[in-house]
Amino acid sequence: MTIKLIIISIIAYFLGNISASYIIAKYTKGIDIRKYGSGNAGATNVFRTLGPKAGLLAFLGDALKGAIAVILGYITGGEDGQIAAGIFVVMGHNWPILLGFKGGKGIATTIGAMIAINPYIVAAIVPIGIVIIIITKYVSLASVMGMTLFPILMLITKQPAKLVLFSFLLSAMAIYRHRTNIVKLLKGTESKLGEKAKKL
After folding, report:
1. What is the DSSP letter of 95?
2. CA-CA distance, 72 to 135, in Å (whole number)?
3. DSSP alpha helices (H): ranges in the chain?
4. What's this model's pTM, rounded to 2 decimal places?
């Protein structure tokens, strides 16, 4: 990895540390969102704890940093730069050093990164996720299914090899972060959208 890519990766990682979910909860209600609901600093937990408006703002904020990181990565380092930025901005969101490595699960940030790389893939996946949520009320199921489809569609549409590998890495990170949700889904104990979050 060149010095330029190292710098891009570091900047993207710290950009990922800027958690819209944490900031919104802290400055609107004075709470640490990680002490409520799932204990996750993500848009779904904000939605369940603070309501739809706050949840949407958290989603958009976390998606925006993903897109910004990838765009800056591409401008400064080309394809390799955008890949490094995409990976590290999601890592920064999931495991933020500024928040004691307790972040979110990376779906909104991954979607933002995906939009900056291939908006058509996102346009194909997001409606499927929305339908799954409407039918089942399980955001985690929609997230896992969407992240599973992401690399498959990248492969089917014959995207550049590096971007296909990138999509597999992001998918693997997202599914790993949802491992407890997957267990709960299988057991039938996963929380549904609309259920009010409780303080931990």
Report:
1. S
2. 37
3. 3-16, 20-29, 43-50, 52-94, 107-117, 119-136, 139-156, 161-177, 179-187
4. 0.92
Q: What is the dihedral of CA 156, 160, 161, 166, to 10 degrees?
A: -90
The region, left, alpha or beta by phi > 0 then psi within -120 to 50, assigned to residue 89 is: alpha
Cβ contact 54:25 at 8 Å: yes
CA distance 36 to 55: 14
Instruction: Quick: pLDDT tens for 151-176.
Output: 999 999 999 999 999 999 999 999 99
Residue 200 has pLDDT above 70, yes or no: no
> What is residue 193's predicted lDDT score, i.e. its pLDDT?
82
Cα-Cα-Cα-Cα dihedral sign, residues 121, 127, 131, 133: positive
Count the Cβ atoms, other than its own, within 10 Å of residue 18: 18
Q: pLDDT tens-digit profile of 11-28? A: 999 999 999 999 999 999
